[in-house]
Model the fold of this input.
Amino acid sequence: MLDKLIPKQRKMSTRVGGMLTLVGEAMFLFSILNFLMISRLQYYSEGDSYIRTVFPHYLLFLAGLGTIGFVAMWMVYVYVLPSKQRFSQEQAVKDNRSPMYDRILEVQDELAEMRKMIKELSEKVEKLSEKDSR
Done:
């Protein structure tokens, strides 16, 4: 019943996904431009002269905002990204959600089996070589 409600995915070229990725990456550059324009408007706003009192020049104001931005990036890099990465990986292996993780487990089992076989074969070879040397 539920299968009929969920639309089937279509096999398509990579153009649509590529365009969306490029647009998403380019939006970051536009957000930098927006930030600069909005910060300039805020700095020269008539209703808020406190910013011009603390930062006598617009470039000092930008340097202060940049410092806050770099501190935020550092905190995200040190604390947030590792936590997000660990969370997403834990979610991926939970309840058999990840076919890749399931395949890795299969390969590990096959590898353990191969190692066991190699060990048995090497023991047999040693026994045969001991018999031949007598």
Remarks:
- The two ends are 73 Å apart (CA to CA).
- The chain has a mean pLDDT of 88.
- Residues 13 and 108 are 34 Å apart (CA to CA).
